[in-house]
Amino acid sequence: MAFVKNLFDKNFIEYASYVIRDRAIPDLEDGLKPVQRRIIHTLFEMDDGRFQKVANVVGQTMRYHPHGDASIYGAVVTMANKGLFAQKEPKFKWISIFLEKQGNFGNLITGATAAAGRYIECRINPLAKEFFVTNPAITHYIPNYDGRSTEPEVYRTKIPVALIMGAEGIAVGMSTKILPYNIKEVLDAEIKCLKGEKFQIYPDAPTGGLIDVSNYNDGNGKIISRAKFDTSDEKRIIITELPLDTDSKSLLESIDAAYKAGKIKISSVEDYSTDYCEIEIKLPRGVYSKDVIDSLYAYTDCEKSISCQMLVIKDNMPVAMTATEIIKYYAGKLTGIIKDELEFEKGQLTDKLHLRTLERIFIEERIYKKIEEMKTQEAVVKAVVDGFVPFKDELIRPITKEDVDHLLTIPIRRISLYDINKNRAEVKEINAKLKEIAKKLKNLTGCAIDYLEGMIAKFPAKELERHTQIKKFNATDVREVAKADQSLRYDEKGYLGINVSGGTEIKKVSPYDRIICVRKNGMYAITDVPDKLFIDKGMWFCDIADKEKLPKVLFTVIFRDPATGFASIKRCRILSWIMNRDYFLAPDGMEILHIDTREKFTFTLNYVKKPRVKITEEKFKAQDFEEKGLKTLGVRLSAHEVESIKVDGVQLELGL
């Protein structure tokens, strides 16, 4: 048994770790989940400038991601609809900085799904080549699952892909929800960070809408997102922009559900959305747009509260970060990537300069003549190496076997047509580039800023405008919007509810109200408005249990001890409660004589007539007794047995 438990624990931990790191949560380094990274890698390999069938891309990606084609196809479609900017001229269309698409990839506005992979095409966006570093000398590549190919462990990325693309995933015991950000705002924030300036960024979605970021907490709180309305015509409402994570189809469904439930009053609703949102809501006679807007926010998806958590994989561990921390991380990382790229380019140019120097000396000093008389390969190599000894001070680095092999492969035709001026010009150009690289290496922060500004310049300004408007508003409480138009009734049989026919109307209530009902025996409870509930005859009190108003109600309870017949009084308030739980205003076992909610009133106790007892009744003022806590036992009124009670001169029947 212990073996089975240990095996289960070990396998579960391994499975949980796999789901967290290799499936659901993006890596901070490149902002991608494994399936997305493998799609990008496949598209880089397949890139020939032409569009590829998505079905073909899916098949090629399975060489690296052996988890079924459906997950790959879904990820391709998702990536094609992430990191979007709007190209408005000559024809409006959304373009992703990751994948260029051709065909029906679905519609973010209408919620239409993408066509099958065999009908749609995609290719890597040239922009992606500028921020995903594919150079094996800089990005670490590892063998794929069968060892036949290599794939990047993670890409080294120059911009915060996790913020631009956003992410959503559920793992074992944790989840991530990163909303997408505006590309230009992210790059501007990174520039400000490199300059040491303050910055702050908020989500932006291509569907537009309004957001309140008061509780966003830099990516680990929640936002309230609303649709944008055009109410210029008071007899109709046009929804022009959608809330985050919403499409027109789901929005229409929520409006239809609210209408059928009687929550909103509308005449008809039509969806004319295409590349833009345009949902027209017509209102019935006597209803105007100002009367319906709050109900749309309260009862439909026109308003949504979205909780966010920026959970990413950092150093092979799940870590919750803020948007500010991610920007700072990438700002520091960008300078490191640029340094590695410059060092790599410097090494390439240094090797090229070394070879040009070798070629010049080899041909100008006729070192190649010394090898004509040599009989063996070893002698040839030695002759070449010895020939460079007098010129070792001119060499960039010591000559190697690879250098000798390069010199020996120079064709005779090239030697005979060797142009010394061309060589000198090339050497001069290489030295100029090396000098420029040395200058850049001394100012990596400036290079990083220039790179980011260059990226921004690749987009026309209008294409990077913010779509989602930041605005201050509070979430609409359905309890505040709901109208109190249902009659709460109580009949002679002891039933209470909104479906009780006949009887007495207690008051008008809404479906979201909560009520307090004090029964004949002094028991009370706070419940939702009942349809029809038996509470017994002789209800003392019933009202809406408002958290602010109910504690202001002063209850005066007059009760009798059945064992002695003595009466007591208790004055208290109900300050807190648990829903649907029974409480008693009087101590357990007492008989209720009267319950009142007035601050001041008089009552008379009628005592049991006995021989030699002259006092048969006694009058009291309720206001003469102090208010005490709900759990107190009360104050005894007299040491006489009580027979009945009068309130304000009216004789009461006990318990009614």
User: Would you tell me the structural class of the helices and strands?
Assistant: alpha+beta
- Radius of gyration over all CA atoms, rounded: 40 Å
Q: In terms of per-residue confidence, which ranges show pLDDT below 50 for 5 or more consecutive residues?
A: none
Provide the domain count.
4
The rounded distance between the terminal residues' Cα atoms is: 66 Å
The neighbouring-strand order within the major sheet is 18-13-12-21
Q: Using the alpha-carbon principal axes, give the shape.
A: elongated
Helix fraction by DSSP (H/I, runs of at least 4)? 25-40%
Number of strands: 37
Tell me the fraction of residues in β-strands, as a range.
Answer: 15-25%
Task: Output mean pLDDT.
Answer: 87
Q: If helices are DSSP runs of H or I spanning 4 or more residues, what is the number of helices?
A: 16
The biggest sheet, with number of strands, parallel, antiparallel or mixed sense and barrel status, is:
4 strands, mixed
EC number: 5.99.1.-
Family: Belongs to the type II topoisomerase GyrA/ParC subunit family.
Keywords: DNA-binding, Isomerase, Topoisomerase
Pfam family, one: DNA_topoisoIV
